[in-house]
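A favour, since you know our structure tokens better than I do. Go ahead and set the record down below.
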Amino acid sequence: MKPVDIEELKGILEEAKNSGLDPEDHAKLQVVADSYRYLAELLSEEGATVERVRQRFFERFKIIRDAKARRGDDTDTAPSN
């Protein structure tokens, strides 16, 4: 299986959104896509190690969770970049 092209994934998400997919389900898929993209970016960095990627990936989403907790936001989506 070949790697997923980010632009292709964006198109699929847009099609799903326009096909009547529940907005909450679309938001969940968007989080998965954003996470995949970020993980791919981390892995492509020079000198990437499993430990460094793991640390940065989970650090980023901890910051997002903490910000949501402060706002009282209980949704399970992350901002897209």
